[in-house]
Design a protein that fits this description.
Layout lengths: L1 H11 L14 H11 L5 H8 L3 H4 L5 H7 L2 H10 L7 H14 L2 H25 L12 H19 L3 H14 L1
Helix pairs in contact: 1-3, 2-3, 2-8, 3-6, 3-8, 5-6, 6-8, 7-9, 8-9, 8-10, 9-10
Length: 178
Protein backbone atom coordinates (compact mmCIF):
# COMPACT_ATOMS: atom_id res chain seq x y z
CA UNK A 1 0.00 0.00 0.00
CA UNK A 2 2.83 2.45 0.80
CA UNK A 3 4.38 2.07 -2.65
CA UNK A 4 0.96 2.61 -4.23
CA UNK A 5 0.59 5.82 -2.15
CA UNK A 6 4.05 6.99 -3.29
CA UNK A 7 3.18 6.34 -6.94
CA UNK A 8 -0.21 8.06 -6.64
CA UNK A 9 1.14 11.10 -4.77
CA UNK A 10 4.01 11.46 -7.25
CA UNK A 11 1.52 11.49 -10.12
CA UNK A 12 -1.00 13.93 -8.63
CA UNK A 13 1.66 16.34 -7.26
CA UNK A 14 3.49 16.36 -10.62
CA UNK A 15 4.44 19.89 -11.65
CA UNK A 16 4.02 21.25 -8.10
CA UNK A 17 6.93 22.80 -6.20
CA UNK A 18 7.57 23.76 -2.58
CA UNK A 19 6.68 27.42 -2.01
CA UNK A 20 9.29 29.76 -3.43
CA UNK A 21 11.68 26.97 -4.46
CA UNK A 22 12.51 24.73 -7.37
CA UNK A 23 12.20 21.62 -5.15
CA UNK A 24 9.54 19.21 -6.46
CA UNK A 25 6.61 19.14 -4.05
CA UNK A 26 6.72 15.35 -3.72
CA UNK A 27 9.78 15.63 -1.45
CA UNK A 28 7.49 16.98 1.29
CA UNK A 29 4.90 14.17 1.42
CA UNK A 30 7.72 11.63 1.12
CA UNK A 31 9.46 13.20 4.13
CA UNK A 32 6.17 13.27 6.07
CA UNK A 33 5.74 9.55 5.37
CA UNK A 34 9.30 8.85 6.50
CA UNK A 35 8.81 10.79 9.75
CA UNK A 36 5.54 8.96 10.44
CA UNK A 37 7.28 5.63 9.80
CA UNK A 38 9.53 6.38 12.80
CA UNK A 39 6.41 6.44 14.99
CA UNK A 40 4.35 3.57 13.54
CA UNK A 41 4.63 0.65 11.15
CA UNK A 42 0.91 0.86 10.23
CA UNK A 43 0.89 1.01 6.42
CA UNK A 44 -2.45 2.82 6.27
CA UNK A 45 -1.15 5.63 8.48
CA UNK A 46 2.12 5.89 6.55
CA UNK A 47 0.17 5.90 3.27
CA UNK A 48 -2.16 8.62 4.60
CA UNK A 49 0.92 10.64 5.56
CA UNK A 50 2.23 10.42 2.00
CA UNK A 51 -1.23 11.36 0.68
CA UNK A 52 -1.92 14.05 3.31
CA UNK A 53 -2.00 17.01 0.87
CA UNK A 54 -3.73 15.33 -2.06
CA UNK A 55 -7.32 16.35 -1.22
CA UNK A 56 -6.24 19.87 -0.34
CA UNK A 57 -3.85 20.54 -3.24
CA UNK A 58 -4.55 18.18 -6.16
CA UNK A 59 -7.28 18.54 -8.74
CA UNK A 60 -9.66 15.62 -9.01
CA UNK A 61 -8.68 14.06 -5.69
CA UNK A 62 -11.27 13.77 -2.95
CA UNK A 63 -12.07 11.36 -0.14
CA UNK A 64 -14.02 9.09 -2.50
CA UNK A 65 -11.00 8.69 -4.81
CA UNK A 66 -8.76 7.83 -1.86
CA UNK A 67 -11.37 5.43 -0.45
CA UNK A 68 -11.59 3.58 -3.78
CA UNK A 69 -7.83 3.45 -4.34
CA UNK A 70 -6.68 2.82 -0.77
CA UNK A 71 -9.24 2.38 2.04
CA UNK A 72 -11.94 4.19 3.96
CA UNK A 73 -9.49 4.59 6.84
CA UNK A 74 -6.83 6.24 4.66
CA UNK A 75 -9.45 8.53 3.11
CA UNK A 76 -10.76 9.47 6.55
CA UNK A 77 -7.32 10.26 7.93
CA UNK A 78 -6.41 12.42 4.93
CA UNK A 79 -9.77 14.19 5.12
CA UNK A 80 -9.20 15.04 8.78
CA UNK A 81 -5.74 16.39 7.98
CA UNK A 82 -7.00 18.60 5.12
CA UNK A 83 -7.74 22.30 5.47
CA UNK A 84 -10.70 24.14 3.97
CA UNK A 85 -9.02 26.40 1.42
CA UNK A 86 -12.15 28.60 1.16
CA UNK A 87 -11.32 30.06 4.59
CA UNK A 88 -8.73 32.73 5.36
CA UNK A 89 -5.23 31.76 6.46
CA UNK A 90 -5.96 32.70 10.07
CA UNK A 91 -9.27 30.79 10.10
CA UNK A 92 -7.61 27.68 8.63
CA UNK A 93 -4.62 27.73 10.96
CA UNK A 94 -6.74 28.40 14.06
CA UNK A 95 -9.00 25.50 13.07
CA UNK A 96 -5.97 23.23 12.54
CA UNK A 97 -4.61 24.00 16.00
CA UNK A 98 -8.01 23.33 17.60
CA UNK A 99 -8.59 20.14 15.58
CA UNK A 100 -5.16 18.72 16.46
CA UNK A 101 -5.88 19.02 20.20
CA UNK A 102 -8.54 16.30 20.04
CA UNK A 103 -7.87 14.51 16.74
CA UNK A 104 -7.24 10.77 16.66
CA UNK A 105 -3.59 9.90 17.33
CA UNK A 106 -2.91 8.96 13.70
CA UNK A 107 -4.10 12.40 12.53
CA UNK A 108 -1.98 14.06 15.21
CA UNK A 109 1.00 11.97 14.11
CA UNK A 110 0.66 13.16 10.52
CA UNK A 111 0.13 16.73 11.72
CA UNK A 112 3.39 16.58 13.66
CA UNK A 113 5.28 15.04 10.74
CA UNK A 114 3.84 17.61 8.31
CA UNK A 115 4.82 20.56 10.50
CA UNK A 116 8.25 19.06 11.28
CA UNK A 117 8.92 18.74 7.55
CA UNK A 118 7.89 22.37 7.09
CA UNK A 119 10.14 23.46 9.97
CA UNK A 120 13.06 21.56 8.42
CA UNK A 121 12.51 23.53 5.21
CA UNK A 122 12.36 26.81 7.12
CA UNK A 123 15.52 25.89 9.04
CA UNK A 124 17.34 25.01 5.81
CA UNK A 125 16.21 28.09 3.89
CA UNK A 126 16.17 30.84 6.55
CA UNK A 127 19.97 31.13 6.80
CA UNK A 128 20.15 31.42 3.00
CA UNK A 129 17.15 33.71 2.36
CA UNK A 130 17.01 35.69 5.58
CA UNK A 131 13.87 37.72 6.19
CA UNK A 132 12.91 37.35 2.50
CA UNK A 133 11.94 33.77 3.33
CA UNK A 134 8.64 34.89 4.87
CA UNK A 135 7.52 36.40 1.55
CA UNK A 136 6.99 32.94 0.09
CA UNK A 137 4.12 32.27 2.48
CA UNK A 138 0.54 33.54 2.26
CA UNK A 139 0.98 35.03 5.72
CA UNK A 140 4.19 36.96 5.22
CA UNK A 141 4.69 37.87 8.87
CA UNK A 142 7.32 35.82 10.74
CA UNK A 143 5.67 36.39 14.13
CA UNK A 144 2.28 35.16 12.89
CA UNK A 145 3.83 32.11 11.21
CA UNK A 146 5.65 31.44 14.48
CA UNK A 147 2.34 31.73 16.35
CA UNK A 148 0.95 28.94 14.19
CA UNK A 149 3.86 26.54 14.65
CA UNK A 150 3.94 27.24 18.40
CA UNK A 151 0.18 26.61 18.59
CA UNK A 152 0.62 23.24 16.88
CA UNK A 153 3.44 22.46 19.33
CA UNK A 154 1.15 23.08 22.30
CA UNK A 155 -1.70 21.10 20.72
CA UNK A 156 0.56 18.06 20.28
CA UNK A 157 2.75 18.31 23.39
CA UNK A 158 0.80 15.87 25.57
CA UNK A 159 0.62 13.12 22.94
CA UNK A 160 4.19 13.37 21.63
CA UNK A 161 6.37 14.89 24.36
CA UNK A 162 8.51 11.75 24.54
CA UNK A 163 9.13 11.34 20.79
CA UNK A 164 12.24 12.29 18.82
CA UNK A 165 10.12 13.96 16.15
CA UNK A 166 8.49 16.27 18.70
CA UNK A 167 11.84 17.10 20.31
CA UNK A 168 13.25 18.05 16.90
CA UNK A 169 10.14 20.10 16.10
CA UNK A 170 10.43 22.04 19.39
CA UNK A 171 14.13 22.64 18.82
CA UNK A 172 13.52 24.02 15.30
CA UNK A 173 10.73 26.31 16.55
CA UNK A 174 12.98 27.70 19.27
CA UNK A 175 15.84 28.17 16.83
CA UNK A 176 13.80 29.91 14.12
CA UNK A 177 11.04 31.69 16.07
CA UNK A 178 12.54 32.13 19.54
Amino acid sequence: MVQKAIDFATKVHEGQYRKGTDRPYIVHPMEVGKIVSTMTQDEEIISAAILHDTIEDCEGVDANVLKEMFSARVAGIVSQESEDKSKTWMERKSATIERLKTAPIEVQMIGLADKLSNMRDIDRDYPVCGEELWNRFRMKDKATIGWYYKGVREALREAFAETEAFAEYCSLIDKNFG
